[in-house]
Design goal:
The protein has 335 residues and is an alpha/beta fold. It is 39% helix and 22% strand. A hairpin with a 5-residue loop joins strand 8 and strand 9. Bound molecules: coenzyme A.
Length: 335
């Protein structure tokens, strides 16, 4: 899959904050922002008029806009509500993107029903005046999300989060693509393949770590990393599985710890059989660019054992320079 624009599909019940999120993603990344609802309004079809035929027409219109924006070289944040089981139109848009070879990610905002009603009361639109009257619809939309077809890794509960925090949760779920690689946010689903990769002893020559004990132990670790935030909420913990695009083979991982003050530290591990092909250079280049654009990172830091020549060569190739020496074998690099 070539390096290029991708799409973020954002769904959730009315009142869950999807329009705000889509706008914030688009602003942060310089992407286009699309809303399915605008098509319903432009066609003059209210909520009482949603026949399957209307749905098909609207989905075709949205798909056309989506592809047009992507072909013009922009990423797209598209937001819409779900109105059918299986979670349609989510599956419809995912299918259109996949059929056109466009990488996409999905975020499902899923607050509890009471939180939806609280948000509606707060935004105070005239249509939200009869709050209890909106409850059955909110319950129906949550029921669609619970009927299957929604991967747990897509779900964000925005209760108690600011708009900025919700944006961070969404950005942390985005994959990255480069010429030869797909970087996928790590989930428990990666545990089995990554256990194989991480078993190679050569990886640990200069790392203060050992191979995972079992697939289950690694899955548990990934379950924690899936939260993508430190327990105290001050750091983003971002981890991507690095896969080769042409055959899906798992090569290793890249990771970043990001602080709100624009500082991030990066680390990377690839399977020894794949060293020497520039995969690490390609993955860490994409990671660094992403940290700068999406996360506002201005200082990138890496700590490396002074004897780890491969890693030092990689850092120097990417413009990192040593910054003084820590006690022991470690050396900090920055750019
Ligand atoms: C650190 C690590 C990721 C570096 O891997 P790597 O394979 O050396 O790095 P790259 O994938 O960028 O490959 C660079 C090599 O590929 C070559 N190469 C081939 N095609 C290339 C391309 N298209 N682009 C860039 N380099 C290319 C380069 O010339 C270079 O070869 P050289 O080492 O003979 O000069 C790897 O050694 C590793 O996982 N180590 C164990 C874990 C570890 O120590 N991590 C770092 C902790 S700080």
């Amino acid at each position: 899959m070539a390096d290029g624009p991708r799409a973020l599909l954002i769904t959730g019940p009315g009142g869950s904050g999807k329009s705000t999120l889509a706008r914030n993603v688009a602003d942060r990344l310089g992407w286009a922002c699309l809303s399915e609802d605008e098509h319903w309004v432009a066609n003059g079809w209210g909520s009482g008029l949603r026949s399957p035929e209307h749905e098909r027409i609207v989905q075709d219109q949205v798909a056309r806009d989506l592809l047009e924006a992507i072909r013009s070289g922009r990423g797209v944040a598209l937001e819409f509500i779900l109105y059918q089981v299986p979670p349609n139109p989510l599956t419809a848009y995912q299918d259109v993107l996949a059929a056109n070879g466009i990488a996409s990610d999905t975020v499902v905002l899923k607050p509890p029903v009471d939180e939806i009603l609280r948000r509606m009361a707060q935004r105070g639109r005239p249509s939200d005046a009869d709050l209890e009257g909106r409850r059955p619809d909110a319950e129906w939309q949550i029921a669609i999300l619970e009927a299957g077809g929604i991967a747990p890794a897509w779900v964000v509960d925005p209760t108690g989060l600011t708009a900025e925090e919700t944006l961070a949760r969404a950005l942390a779920r985005l994959g990255l693509t480069t010429e030869r690689l797909c970087l996928e946010p790590i989930t428990t689903d990666h545990a089995e393949a990554m256990f194989e990769v991480l078993g190679a002893p050569e990886i640990y020559a200069y790392l203060d770590e050992s191979p995972p004990d079992s697939v289950d132990a690694l899955r548990e670790r990934y379950r924690v990393l899936e939260r993508r935030t430190s327990p105290d909420g001050t750091e983003q913990w971002l981890n991507w599985a690095v896969r080769r695009a042409e055959d899906g083979h798992h090569l290793g991982y890249v990771q970043a710890t990001v602080r709100a003050d624009g500082w991030a530290s990066v680390a990377y591990v690839l399977s020894p059989g794949t060293w020497g092909h520039g995969y690490a250079t390609e993955a860490v280049t994409a990671l660094a660019a992403w940290l700068e654009t999406a996360w506002g990172v201005t200082t990138l830091d890496a700590t490396v054992d002074r004897r780890n020549h491969r890693s030092i060569a990689l850092l120097e190739r990417l413009g990192f320079a040593p910054t003084g020496r820590t006690p022991g074998d470690d050396q900090h690099y920055q750019r």
